[in-house]
Design a protein that fits this description.
single chain; alpha/beta; 2 domains; 2,3-Dihydroxybiphenyl 1,2-Dioxygenase, domain 1; four-stranded mixed β-sheet; 139 residues
């Protein structure tokens, strides 16, 4: 069996110039690991990292169409990736900071999860992409 590890997630965005600094501020993704421009394809990309293994690739393609969903259940109506899930040490603080200081959309407030000791909430980035925040029981 081949050993695999998660490397990054790629997100198609409408405005790279807006989304790049938002993800930097919101999640500490301030390290530019790769930047690529393909003018003939109308594509610009950047891979942002936090230096600890979290990487998000933002891809802007001229003429792309936005798709957003009002909640995570509606997102499952299409067979594709539905949201980015990030573990945070303090769910309430992260939710308050993201929806206040960072301007994330409030999708669902902090609530108990299905697993004992787990809590979750959903926010949306400036373009409506869903982000789940997860807090697990402290050891």
């Amino acid at each position: 069996m081949t050993t695999v590890r998660f490397h990054h997630i790629s997100l198609s965005v409408g405005d790279l110039s807006t989304q790049e600094p938002w993800y930097g501020t919101a999640f500490g993704l301030t390290q530019v690991e790769e930047r690529l421009e393909l003018p003939e394809a109308g594509v610009r990309t950047v891979v942002l990292g936090d230096g600890q293994g979290l990487r998000v690739e933002l891809v802007e393609r001229r003429g792309s169409s936005p798709v957003s969903y009002p909640d995570p259940f509606a997102a499952t109506a299409v067979q594709t990736y539905t949201h980015l899930a990030l573990q945070v040490p303090d769910l309430d603080a992260a939710f308050t900071r993201l929806t206040g200081e960072c301007g994330a959309g409030q999708i669902s407030p902090p609530a108990p999860g299905a697993t004992a000791g787990m809590r979750y909430a959903y926010v949306a980035d400036p373009e409506g992409n869903l982000i789940e925040l997860i807090e697990t029981a402290r050891d």
